[in-house]
Structure formats: C-alpha cells, structure tokens
C-alpha cells in the first residue's frame, strides 16, 4: 500500500480551501449533507508488468525511467471527479508500470520506437489535468503502460518579435510560459481554470479554451506550428501562418490527445502584455436577456477580452456563499489592452450593455472574479470531503439552439442526480462566445450516494445524451478522452471514425499511443 498524499486532490496543500459556514449551511439545508466522506490514506498499486529486458531498452534511450511507487502513483489519474473518487477509495487501477522523463525530442521519438517494438502502451503526460479520463490507457493486448512525462521539455526555444510568435517545448507549464513571455513584454493570453498546472502541449492536444478567449482566442487558433514524435518518425507542421498547401496537418495533432503523436514543440501567436485592465460586473433580469446581450456583443461588438454570463442559479449560489451580489444574472465583462484602448472599449461597452438591458455593478464583481478564478478545483476537494458530488461538464452550440440545449442538459442533470433524496444544485454559465454560438458550462453539486462514481457516471451519461439530442457538441474545451468517446463517435459518424482510424494506422501502426482514448 502506498500513501496517497496529495495526488487525490488539486494543486498544493497550502492552497486548500476550508468550507465557510455559509457553504456548510447551504450543503445541510439544501442537500441534506451532514456526514463527511474522508478519503483513504493509502492506495494499492497494481503490480508492474514491464519486463527487465524492456525496461533496460527504454533506459538505454532515456535514462530517466522510474518504476518506484511514488512516480507511478503521481501519474495514475487525471483530475476528474471520477479520478479523484477512485483514488480517495484507495484504487489506483490506471497507474502506469513506469514513468519516463525524456529531456529531448529525440528521446521521445526513441521511446516511442522502442515501445512500438515491444507493444508497450504510451500515455503522454503534461500537467495531468485531464477531466475526461484522458490518462487512462487501455492495457489489454499490451506488455505494459509507460507514462511519458514531458516536464523536462520546458524551454522557450525562440521568440520572434517581428512576427509576434514564440516557440516553446511542449512540457512548459502555463505559468512559466507567461513568466518567460512577460520578461520580454508579451503574453499568450491563455488562462483556463487549469492554468496553474497544465502544459502548453496539453492545451494543444485537447483544444483548450481560456477564460479570456473572447479577446485572445482559443488555444488551437493560437498555434501556428507543431512538432510531434510518432512511432514512425517526426512530424513537423506549420511553415507559414496560413497555407493552401493541402489539408492543414496541424489539425491532426490539435485535439488528438496523444493518439496520433506526442507533441514536443509548438509555435504560438503572442501579444503585447496589456498595459491596463478593467473588469466589471453587470446584472441582467434573466438568463434569456443576458444571453441576448452577450450574443449582441459577440456578433456586432464591441467585444471585450473576457465575457461570461451566469444563470440565475449560479448567480444566487455565488451570492449566498460570499460572492458578488447581483439580482437576476451576473455577467463579468473584462477589457485588456493599452490604456487608451481599455478606456475606449469600456465606455462603448457601458453604453451598449445599458441599451441591452444591463445594470452596471462596478468593478468589485469583476475584481472578485479575477481573484478567485482558479479556485474552483480546490473548492471541489472540500465538497468531496464533505460528502458532496461536485463536477462540471460543458458543451457548445449555435445561438438558435442554445436555449433548448441549456434546458435539456439542466433537466437531465436535475432528474438524474436526485437519487440521494434531495434535488441537486445545477448551475450554468456562458463561458465562451463566438459570432455563431457559445459554450455552456454546467456545475453540479449533489449529495453523494453510497456509490458516488456510478451516481455521477449515470448523470453524466444522461446529460451527454441530452447534449447529443439537442445537436450540440459533446465537448467544447475539455477534450474527448475516455468519458466522451461514445458520444464523439456518434457525433462524427462512421465515415469520420474510418478517417481517424486510417490516420491512426498510418502514424501508429501498432496502436501504442493512448489506446482507448479518443478513438472507438
């Protein structure tokens, strides 16, 4: 048995959240939660299956290959509620047999070649922040599982001030990337909730979208070049920012979740670091009115850098637990840029949002959102300790389908999470906007049953069915992984599946790259 320490939690112990009296009171009154659910202190690792002969060959191409329990446990799971509940129950079923820490792109390529020869499944590991089971490779038919941790690939390779691009190795974590760019007067502008721990390669592999996507764009739109190692050799894409030279091969790797290759280097667009910021809160009388307002900004402008709209339930719960006070629905509107640009856009936004039915709340709600925007995963740990299920899911759809999708998914979650005797809390916000549609991001809190993993899986399946039936996509920015694979298969159809299988066969003929992830 091995100590779980902090692998069944998010982040660092120093940043752990203690539930306030208001939150504890809400859990008791609304959900009937009074009994804590302490986590197990140890987990049992499955016996390693890689032979000494295979390990010796792996170490011959990459000396940093570990088989100790601590390394294996640290790479045993991502950060979905399913993952954390399994670890808290003392189960580390998906732990790899070994962990490699390559220091160069060539070492990655050599590892993949060796694993292909010996039929060793490979799980690329960036920040370990997957919430869709993206690190749980299938073991059947393989000699074992090797996690390839890219943390040592952490250099800023080149910064091009003229073209405003930066080339990074894929293991660079997001805070380090921002630190390196800030020293040169630039920013990437990509700040998802996983920002503190996720890697740039992980952002690319999952088509991540940051909280400031309205201003800076999704991560896949930022990527102008990629290099990847595959079992048959290196793939180098992106000779120019745009090209008509055949299909864009970058798109094979963006969102591929390690199934086609291991991203080792990427070139991204960068922006001058903002000189000024202005974040404000706005209230709208209803979610429908607020959605109309954010759609108007997305389609006709002015477009802020950050634009988020909470529904009535999320607004009320945030207010009841110490967050910003607002009637109806709260919107956070943030503008970044030069001082002149921020002043001009802020004034234009105030005029436009007032005309669209909004009421200004000043900068306090915007400042509070900025201060706490990376705290939700820590709060989830505390809620799990208290005996609650706490999880999120997201989708995206066209504007005309958004009301029906919102109602269908919310209804499915309400219906399927009432098994513990009390209705769940189902909260939602519009998190990313485009001229043609938007993303809906749902947060769920419910009392745990005796089988919380099965409880959440059933509810997630019902919500996923509702997403599919409404014509929305199964994921906007979390990726497919294992959790979304059945609905992704339906979404792309038989011809789409055949096309992806053809790519897989060409680049990974022995199927060692993240088997069981993404592809059916």
Describe the structure in your own words.
The protein has 520 residues and is of the alpha+beta class. Among the domains are: 156-272, Uridine Diphospho-n-acetylenolpyruvylglucosamine Reductase, domain 3; 276-372, Alpha-Beta Plaits (2-Layer Sandwich), CATH 3.30.70. 37% of the residues lie in helices and 22% in strands. The chain has 18 helices and 20 strands. It has helices at 21-31, 52-61, 69-74, 81-88, 105-118, 174-182, 200-206, 213-216, 219-222, 250-253, 287-300, 312-320, 339-355, 364-372, 376-386, 402-416, 452-469, 485-507; strands at residues 2-3, 42-43, 65-66, 98-100, 120-125, 144-149, 156-160, 165-169, 186-187, 223-230, 233-237, 262-269, 271-272, 276-284, 306-310, 329-337, 359-360, 388-398, 425-433, 437-447. The strands form 5 sheets. Strands 17-14-16-15-19-20-18 form a 7-stranded antiparallel β-sheet, with helices on both faces. Strands 7-8-12-10-11 form a 5-stranded antiparallel β-sheet. A 4-stranded mixed β-sheet has the order 3-4-6-5, with helices on one face. Strand 10 and strand 11 (233-237) form a beta hairpin. The longest helix has 23 residues, at 485-507. The chain is globular and about 70 Å long. The mean pLDDT is 95.
What's the β-strand tally?
A: 20
Q: Could you name the CATH topology of the domain at 156-272?
A: Uridine Diphospho-n-acetylenolpyruvylglucosamine Reductase, domain 3
Radius of gyration over C-alpha positions, nearest whole angstrom: 23 Å
Output the number of helix runs.
18
- The best one-word shape is globular
What helical percentage do the residues reach? 25-40%
Mean pLDDT: 95
State the major sheet: 7 strands, antiparallel
Question: What is the CATH first-level class name of the domain at 156-272?
Answer: Alpha Beta
Structural class assignment: alpha+beta
Q: Determine the strand fraction and express it as a percent band.
A: 15-25%
Please give the order of strands in the largest beta sheet: 17-14-16-15-19-20-18
CATH architecture of the domain at 156-272: 2-Layer Sandwich
Low-confidence stretches: none
Question: How far apart, in Å, are the first and last alpha carbons?
Answer: 34 Å
């Amino acid at each position: 048995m091995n100590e779980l320490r902090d692998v069944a939690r998010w982040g660092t112990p120093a940043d752990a959240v203690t539930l306030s009296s208001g939150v504890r009171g809400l859990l008791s009154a609304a959900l009937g939660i009074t009994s804590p659910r302490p986590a197990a202190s140890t987990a049992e690792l499955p016996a390693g299956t890689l032979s000494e002969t295979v390990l010796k060959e792996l170490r011959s191409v990459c000396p940093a290959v570990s088989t100790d329990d601590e390394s294996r446990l640290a790479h045993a799971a991502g950060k979905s509620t399913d993952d954390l509940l399994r670890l808290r129950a003392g189960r580390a079923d998906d732990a790899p047999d070994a962990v490699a820490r390559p220091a160069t792109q060539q070492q990655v390529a050599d590892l993949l070649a060796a694993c292909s020869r010996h039929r060793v499944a490979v799980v690329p590991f960036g920040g370990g922040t997957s919430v869709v089971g993206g690190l749980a490779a299938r073991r059947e038919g393989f000699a074992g599982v090797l996690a390839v941790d890219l943390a040592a690939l952490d250099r800023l390779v080149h910064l091009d001030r003229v073209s405003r691009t930066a080339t990074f190795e894929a293991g660079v974590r997001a805070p380090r990337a921002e630190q390196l760019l800030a020293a040169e007067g630039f920013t990437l502008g990509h700040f998802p909730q996983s920002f503190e721990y996720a890697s740039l390669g992980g952002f690319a592999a999952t088509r991540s979208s940051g909280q400031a996507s309205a201003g800076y764009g999704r991560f896949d739109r930022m990527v102008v070049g990629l290099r990847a190692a595959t079992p048959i050799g290196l793939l180098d894409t992106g000779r120019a920012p745009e090209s008509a030279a055949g299909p864009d091969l970058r798109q094979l790797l963006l969102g591929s979740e390690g199934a086609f290759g291991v991203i080792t280097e990427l070139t991204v667009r960068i922006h001058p670091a903002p000189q000024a910021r202005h974040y404000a809160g706005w209230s709208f009388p209803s979610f429908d009115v607020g959605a109309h307002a954010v759609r108007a900004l997305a389609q006709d402008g002015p477009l802020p850098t950050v634009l988020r709209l909470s529904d009535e339930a999320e607004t009320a719960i945030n207010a009841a637990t110490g967050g910003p006070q607002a009637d109806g629905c709260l919107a956070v509107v943030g503008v970044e840029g030069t001082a002149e640009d921020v002043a001009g856009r802020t004034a234009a936004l105030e005029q436009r949002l007032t005309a669209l039915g909004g009421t200004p709340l000043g900068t306090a709600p915007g400042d509070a959102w900025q201060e706490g925007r990376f705290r939700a995963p820590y709060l989830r740990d505390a809620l799990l300790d208290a005996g609650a299920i706490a999880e999120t899911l997201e989708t995206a759809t066209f504007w005309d389908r958004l009301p029906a999708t919102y109602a269908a998914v919310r209804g499915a979650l309400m219906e399927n999470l009432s098994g513990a005797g009390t209705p769940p809390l189902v909260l939602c916000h519009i998190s990313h906007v485009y001229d043609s549609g938007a993303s809906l991001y749902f947060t769920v809190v419910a009392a745990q049953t005796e089988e919380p993993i099965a409880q959440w899986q059933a509810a997630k399946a019902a919500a996923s069915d509702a997403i599919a039936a409404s014509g929305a996509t199964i994921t906007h920015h979390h990726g497919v992984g294992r959790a979304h694979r059945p609905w992704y298969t339906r979404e792309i159809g038989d011809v789409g599946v055949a096309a992806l299988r053809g790519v897989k066969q060409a680049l990974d003929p022995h199927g060692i790259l993240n088997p069981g992830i993404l592809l059916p």
